[in-house]
Every structure is written in structure tokens, then in C-alpha cells.
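Justification of computing resources. Each target in the renewal requires a structure prediction run like the one illustrated here; the chain below, 486 residues long, is used simply to show the kind of job we budget for.
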Amino acid sequence: MAIRIKGATNLAEVDSNSNLKVTLPTSSAQAGCAQFFSQNDAGTITGTAYVRSPETSVDYRLRVGIDTVLFSDTFNATTQNTSNWSYTFVTMTAAQAGAGTVNFGTVQGTAATHGAFMRSAQYFPVIGTAPLSVEITAGQFTAALAANEVWMMGLGLPSAAVTEGTDGVWLRLTTAGLIGELRYSGVTVQTAVLRTLAQLTVSELYKFAIVVGETEVEYWLDDVLLAEQTIPPANGQPFMQASLPVFLHKYCNGVVANTNQMRVSDVTVSLLDLQTVKPWSHQMAGMGQNAAIGQNGYTQGTTALLPNATAATTVTGAAISQTVPIAVGLGGQAGIVAGVPGVDGLITSYQVPAPTINITGRNLYITGIRIDAVNIGAAVATTASVLQWSLAYGATGATVPTLAQAETGSFITATARSWRRVPLGLHSFIVGAAIGASAEAITVTFDTPHVVRPGEWVASVAKFIVGTATASQVIWSNVMINGYFE
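Resulting C-alpha cells:
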């Protein structure tokens, strides 16, 4: 039965989809209210649209969360980044072949004692109502997982190659399929099967995401919600330890018949909805991109030249040179013994690695520098020793360029750049300065960072402006360059 809606004079109408045509009132006196929800997921898998209502502050402002990136790493290098990742294995191995992924099972374990895992050195806390997001791009590589194989990824800390952690939140993949798992001090709560093994195509990489909240955990696949898992009310939080590393783990819990691999492309961890006011440099340092640390694809460990167990008094040092640095590193230690007054020389030099398919190009932001100097070897005689220091950066070349390198002209093929120079300060040793006399430290903080791009060089530079080092005199210098890679 059709019903017609009519006011005093006008009839209401519907559109072609049978929706009532409505124009909202323009007068505030006539306006009502409406509940506002945003759709996070259409409910393709769960069967129900996943909607959330926003919040408004007591001062009528819509609350908006700002995320903080805690960690991000891509496995495009050919070697393990030992600054960021710890690795444990028995028989089964993991490796980075330089094809953009880390592969678990490059040597396949076949017994219940065989397994391998990687876990981040960094730990990630659950902070109040701010969710913690873990995104991992991963997939089966050479074949589907076989009986007695287990693949796990998420937050947790395995204690051995085949021993799972007692706390955490992760995704588990076996021949039974993909499930979400909460573990609180050894007690496990699982979801139903989120994806069957057959629904995860071999050789395809998927974006898995785990969003850990204070009262629930969400599991996502390629930005589609798979499930919400409520945290047991007796627990009070997702895992008892409250802060855990991100991990990747493949192991056998029985005899395995075939050979296959799991591969992972990248991992990102973010703290959602919480503006920590943490400087960007702090975020970069947290994920292993401090200037003092070697980056993906090249030598790990420290970037500065500070060889262990090398006493300054046993090092003779070197004369200042325009072409040969005394120390090769992003800062470090160097002994200066002589120099022609007024001629600049390279004290330390470092090349920001040029990018390749296996080396991520990163800019080096220099935020500060400190230089200390002490007189060793012999007392200063006859003439005072005064050194003028500067920072040089931006020059290009396959090997460290001479300080005299010129800039190529406009639109000349194969552009070469000269050094950009920044004065830093002076070190002075008066006549009669004894062995062990030190100059006042040079400490400079840059409000505007100096940026050294991939493939460019950075150097600390000094020159004698009064006198030179006298016979047997060594001016021992420590150069510390502060900054971060981005």
C-alpha cells in the first residue's frame, strides 16, 4: 500500500532509488542533530560494516589523532642490519638475497628442532588508549606451507629457534590457515581462521596489519578488516610485558616433507592517535638512523673512526693534506703533526653512500658538531699553534675530492660539486703549552641542519693560521658529528 506524505500544501517526493528527498533546514532554530560515524571497513569479510564515532572535546573541537612513526625497515639490502635486528637459528636459515626481501627457509629445516627468527632490537610499548600498529608485508614464496610448519609475525619475543614467546600479539600461519593470537603470560586466546592457506596465493606478498588497542586487537589484510578480537577482561591489557619487539619466526613442530620459504619485504610500527611531540630526529634515531650507525646495505657498526684499544700516545698522526684525510669516517680521532700555514687540510672525511638497488639512498642531516683537541708528544716551542676548523660538505666524486675541487659550469655534462664550507671555531696552544694541555672545545649546534645527500662527501677541515706543530708535537683531535639519516 502506497502512502503519500503531505504537509499543509506540499507533497514529499522520493528519488529513483526510493530515498526520501530531504533538504536540511537552513535555520539553526529548526536544526535537529544527527549521529556521525565514519566507516573504517565495508565489512567485506566480517559481514558488518566497521564504523566508529568521532569524539568532540569539551570546548567543541573535533578530536583528531596524530600518529608517531616508531620503526620502519625495508629488506632491500644483501646483508642483515645488525643494528636493527637480532637473529637466531637452528639448521633452518634466513637470508637477504638482495631481491627486496628477507627469506626464511633458504636452508629448510625438516625436524622439530629446526627454526629461525628475527626480532627488532627496539621495543614498542602500549601506551594508554593509543593503539599500536604493526604492518608487515609478507607471503609464501616457493611453495605453500606444509604440515608441521609454523609462521608467526607480530609483537613478541621468541626465546629459541623453536620456542615461542610467552607474551605478545601476532598472526600465526599453518596448514590450518591464518589466525590471530593473543598471549598473556603464557595463556593464549585465538581467533577463528581468518584466511585458509589456499586463500593466500604462493609468490604473492600481502600487507598484514595488527592494531593493538587497550581493549581489543584488529587484524587486517590488504586494508580489509579480518577480525576484531576482544582482550579478556581479566587481563586489562593485550600482553603482560607491556613493551615488546616486533618479530618474524618460522619453525617446525614436527617432521617437514618439502622445501619452501616465507619472505618479508618491510616492517613498520606506528603509535596511533598520540602526538608525542617527539622531534623527527628522535623518531629517525629510534629506528636505527642515527648518524653514528651504519645503514642498510653497507658496513654496520659505527660510522666514526674510533678504533678500539688504540692509545693516542702511540699514534704519530699525519700532516695536513688537501687530498688525503687523516681519518676516514664520519668524525673520529686524528693526530695532526704539521701543515703549511694558511693551507686547509682534510682531517676526517665520509661519503654518504650512493644509492643502489640494494642501498636505500638516505640524506644525512647534520645538526651539530663538537671538536676537542689536546697537545701530546712535545711541548709547544717557538711559535703558538693555532688551528682554524670548518665543516665541508656537498662535494661529489668516486673518491674523496681535493679541497680545491671546483664546481662545474651551468649545464655541463656530469655535474661535479665543490665543497660547501661552514666555519666552526679555533683551537689555540700558546708557546710553552705542555704535553696534555687542551684547547677549549668547539661546540656548534645548527638551528638549520646541513644536509648531505647520497653520494656526497662530508669532512672536518683544519688549517694552521699561526705557526705549525713543532718537532714531535701532535695535536690530537676528536671530531663528533651529530645528526641523523632520513
